[in-house]
Design brief:
Blueprint (H helix, E strand, L loop, with lengths): L2 E12 L10 E11 L1 H10 L8 H12 L3 E2 L3 H12 L4 E11 L7 E5 L1
Parallel strand pairs: 1-3
Antiparallel strand pairs: 1-2, 2-4, 4-5
Length: 114
């Protein structure tokens, strides 16, 4: 099945550790979307974005989820983004993964995937 992968970097406040509260962090949001093969083939033949996933909409969803919001856990925005992308045309399955630097020195990063 055809797949579109997209990475979006956002700056937001997220976390429950004392060092995270009130601090902006960079998050790496990775989105993997499997799309309908017939739609992808039609898009390739017609060069019409309406026949495939418009990945700028995925980017907009990510930006909108984090706009003006603060989250305690990575699970919250990950699942919210996943549900919204699943509703887009031509989408068959979605995997969303968000990673952030972790405040413990022996843990360079933490990632949640759904």
């Amino acid at each position: 099945m055809p797949r579109i992968d997209l990475e979006v970097v956002v700056i937001t406040e997220i976390g429950i550790a004392p060092t995270e509260i009130g601090t902006q962090q960079s998050l790496d949001v990775h989105i993997g979307v499997e799309i309908d093969a017939d739609a992808a083939n039609k898009a390739a033949q017609t060069a019409d974005i309406h026949h495939t996933l418009d990945y700028s909409r995925c980017r907009s969803i990510v930006r909108h989820v984090f706009e003006g919001c603060r989250f305690d856990l990575l699970e919250e925005p990950t699942l919210l983004i996943k549900r919204q992308i699943e509703e887009l045309p031509h989408v068959r399955s979605v995997v969303v993964s968000i990673a952030k630097a972790h405040p413990w020195p022996d843990v360079p990063s933490v990632r949640f995937t759904a």
